Inverse folding.
């Protein structure tokens, strides 16, 4: 019998087992994948969510040498640390495997030999490669840095410049140096096998740009993120070249050829095959056929990664699978951009940021810390551009969305139901005369309109998740919470009870509110699963099972209740204790301690350090700037923008409107008459609906407070500065 079931395979980038993971990793590849996998399970879809530790490569051996331990000690330490941390944060992998497992060795060597035996997928080359004389070993591309020949970035890697995104080879770097010894490496001859990536360029271009594979529809190219397609096409436009598939290392998967003694499979080839070996292990444990998820016609593969892994998952790995001939290719690779931390990149060496396991320890006394973090990262997920994690926003999302909108609504519904109906779901049927009268009330108070709105937002939530727009899905969740709070406030069942406890509108209102609470217990599960579990318990409902969303959606569409009249609910409990609580500042103190830690780092950096200058510019570049003297003649705040002022500057020959981010430091009325220097030929830009026609030059003092640069006294408006 032909298999008609869709088999979903969800992967997250295998984390490298030589260190702990920070919040940026969680936001980039693991939380979005977990949200998607949890949603598919709620739909009742056949889903495998796999991941594991990437445990080979030069970085492992380098760290082991520096610490004087074996590579096995390094990978065991961080495999178990990261696996445990993921579990504690609710990342629901079906399996968390490791590439040091014998099954992975077998899988990777099988794929290598399949390509080798084809005869035209590899080529053998004897080449000169960089060698560190001090460490007595050849250097992997990532352990060579130098100046990028294309953009001048001085910290480019041997395989890629992370500033301009260009693909590089180590020999292209200007002033190369070993990251081990810091010295200039020498060149030595060695023999390796290269994968003929260049011969796959044609079909890759059609597959990525048009979504077609072997002349057939494969996926909708418009469903892929623009920056994913853009980076892939940039690589293809730059022409693909054969890529080394083996390395001279003593730690890794041995190349399964007699003449390849002392050589291992390159980690870029080895690591993504870890998805396949993890699936094989999981399927064996579950009594399933792993090939359904990788080779079957109904396999649907989605890779969740960060943007630094786009090329490997969209070009290199698919080319390997296509060359093999039996594997399906991913239908989407919704790569996220990078998450920064309080305005900077995460940096372990500088202590800037917080690792996942560190967060769990520091916030151990913070109620519902796991969901608080998951939600803050969800609301600020770097889906299409880099975003920034800030502790103040963490607190705002927690208090405004989770405590006020969700927690307040659920608590009021449970309290009122227990108070008025002894904890039993009231019968909202009423008599026909009442229902007809009830339906004539205002839009937000109508039960039918309320449930239609509830259903529509729930469907929107699902559609956004299926499109990998998780932030938009979070917005739908917030709208559902707001819908419930507005409904309660406008119906005011407490007021109706005070006037007439028998008023059927009270039962109708609370029944509607309990239906929404039940719905929220379901749609919160992919986002904040620990809270979802608690809500199910408070509603006296069983834990969610596969297919519950499918069943709930059908009931909503058929206008059937999610919670039957007469059902006994539990006693209310607080879902989220607010951070900004005048009676208890224990949670706020934890956050303030983290902010103080960062401030101390900034102060330490300032001590004895010369200011960091921007890259040198040519004289011709400076002469392009048109700097003019001017006077501020009007200023006002921009609505709903705490940092922005709308400023009018008189240049003598004309007046310009400028948006300046100084509202935190200057009141509009206090800067009228202020002399300024204006960059007058800056391209106009719209900010909060106001077109800014230039930029006012300012300097920061030691505390970071901006001050105006004023022209000499007596200079008229409009004078050029050069």
């Amino acid at each position: 019998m032909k298999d008609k079931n869709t088999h979903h395979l969800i992967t997250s980038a295998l984390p490298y087992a030589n260190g702990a993971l920070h919040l940026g990793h969680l936001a980039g590849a693991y939380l979005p994948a977990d949200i998607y996998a949890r949603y598919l399970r709620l739909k009742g879809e056949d889903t495998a969510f796999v991941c594991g530790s990437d445990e080979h490569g030069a970085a492992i051996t380098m760290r082991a040498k520096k610490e004087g331990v074996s590579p096995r000690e390094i990978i065991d330490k961080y495999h178990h640390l990261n696996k445990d941390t993921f579990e504690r944060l609710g990342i629901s992998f079906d399996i968390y495997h490791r590439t040091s497992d014998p099954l992975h060795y077998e899988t990777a060597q099988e794929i290598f030999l399949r390509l080798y035996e084809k005869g035209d997928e590899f080529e053998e080359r004897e080449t000169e490669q960089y060698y560190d004389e001090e460490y007595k070993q050849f250097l992997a591309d990532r352990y060579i840095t130098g100046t990028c020949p294309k953009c001048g970035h001085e910290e480019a890697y041997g395989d890629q410049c992370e500033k301009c995104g260009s693909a590089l080879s180590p020999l292209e770097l200007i002033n190369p140096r070993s990251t081990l010894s810091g010295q200039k490496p020498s060149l030595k001859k060695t023999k390796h096998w290269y994968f003929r990536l260049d011969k796959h360029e044609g079909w890759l271009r059609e597959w990525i740009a048009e979504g077609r594979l072997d002349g057939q529809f494969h996926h909708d190219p418009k469903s892929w993120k623009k920056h994913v397609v853009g980076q892939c096409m940039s690589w293809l436009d730059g022409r693909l070249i054969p890529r080394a598939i083996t390395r001279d290392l003593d730690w890794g998967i041995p190349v399964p050829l007699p003449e390849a003694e002392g050589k291992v499979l390159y980690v870029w080839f080895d690591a993504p095959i870890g998805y396949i070996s993890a699936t094989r292990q999981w399927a064996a444990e579950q009594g399933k056929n792993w090939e359904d998820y990788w080779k079957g016609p109904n396999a649907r593969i989605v890779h969740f990664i960060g943007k630094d892994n786009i090329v490997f998952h969209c070009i290199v790995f698919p080319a390997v699978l296509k060359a093999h001939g039996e594997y399906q290719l991913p239908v989407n690779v919704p790569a996220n951009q990078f998450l920064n931390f309080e305005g900077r990149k995460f940096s372990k060496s500088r202590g800037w940021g917080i690792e996942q396991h560190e967060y769990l320890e520091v916030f151990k006394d913070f109620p519902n810390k796991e969901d608080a973090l998951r939600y803050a990262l969800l609301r600020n997920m770097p889906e299409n551009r880099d975003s920034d994690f800030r502790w103040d926003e963490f607190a705002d999302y927690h208090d405004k969305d989770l405590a006020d909108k969700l927690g307040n609504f659920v608590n009021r519904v449970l309290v009122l139901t227990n108070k008025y109906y002894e904890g039993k779901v009231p019968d909202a049927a009423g008599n026909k005369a009442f229902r007809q009268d009830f339906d004539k009330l205002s839009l937000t108070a109508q039960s039918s309109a309320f449930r239609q709105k509830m259903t529509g937002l729930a469907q929107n939530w699902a559609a956004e998740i299926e499109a990998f727009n998780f932030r938009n899905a979070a917005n739908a969740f917030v709208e559902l919470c707001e819908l419930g709070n507005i409904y309660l406030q406008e119906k005011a069942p407490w007021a109706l009870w005070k006037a007439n406890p028998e008023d059927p509108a009270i039962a109708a209102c609370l029944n509607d509110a309990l239906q929404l609470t039940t719905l929220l217990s379901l749609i919160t599960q992919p986002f904040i699963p620990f809270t979802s579990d608690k809500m199910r318990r408070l509603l006296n409902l069983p834990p969610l099972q596969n297919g519950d969303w499918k069943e709930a959606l059908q009931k909503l569409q058929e206008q059937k209740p999610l919670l039957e009249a007469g059902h006994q609910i539990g006693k209310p409990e607080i879902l989220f204790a607010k951070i900004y609580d005048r009676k208890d500042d224990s949670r706020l103190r934890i956050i303030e301690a983290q902010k103080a830690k960062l401030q101390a780092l900034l102060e330490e950096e300032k001590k004895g350090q010369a200011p960091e200058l921007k890259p040198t510019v040519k004289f011709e570049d400076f002469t392009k700037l048109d700097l003019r003297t001017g006077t501020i003649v009007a200023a006002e705040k921009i609505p709903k923008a705490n940092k922005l002022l709308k400023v009018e500057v008189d240049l003598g020959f004309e007046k310009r409107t400028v948006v300046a981010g100084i509202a935190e430091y200057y009141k509009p009325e206090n800067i009228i008459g202020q002399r300024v220097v204006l960059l007058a030929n800056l391209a106009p830009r719209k900010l909060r609906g106001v077109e800014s026609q230039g930029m006012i030059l300012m300097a920061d003092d030691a505390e970071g407070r901006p001050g105006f640069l004023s022209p000499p006294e007596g200079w008229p408006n409009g004078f050029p500065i050069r």
About this structure: Confidence is low (pLDDT under 50) at residues 430-445.
